[in-house]
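Appendix B, Record 12. Input sequence as logged:
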Amino acid sequence: MEPEVRAGAPFAVRVRASWRDVWQLLATLILLAASAAFVAGGLTEGGGMGGVLFTVFGLAGFALFGTGLVVAGGQMLTRRPVLELDDEGVRRPARWPLPRRAGRTLPWDDVQAIAALRRGVGGTRKGEMDYVVFLRTPELAEMARTWDRPRLVALTMRDVPATAEAVPWCFGVERGWDASLPRIVKEARARRRVPVIDRRTK
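Logged structural output:
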């Protein structure tokens, strides 16, 4: 059962921690240890060509996997929201390690409609994914209402000029999110009664 909608309180959507995240961290740690072993082996070899190559590759791997470990670990520990809704509008928080002030906000006055879309093919490895799109213009809302479903994929694609303005406020509702698309729509409408265009199945 989903929690009760509370219009006055901010609503944040986060990605649940999973075993996949843990395994990715462990894999990065193993690669980091392997890079350190390369550096140690290169230093042991001395100044020969093999030793220099071992050291260079080891240092490159250490920098690459060390950065990956810090970013992945920081994202797991900070658990910044991927989407926030409050009385002011819709917020796309900046991902760690970017500063929080780098996030963007779409005021409710600029939201003309909310579109619920579905993209993908059922029965395949990737399957289907639902999207919630906060539409900023009447033209985009009209497209969401009238376009055929196959064409609505354009609202989720940055390289289509006619719909590029929708992409910054398009959110793919991933399986790991702690809120479903219907819950997100309910929370949004509790703050502003904007029209909802549900095109997931029609």
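The radius of gyration is 22 Å.
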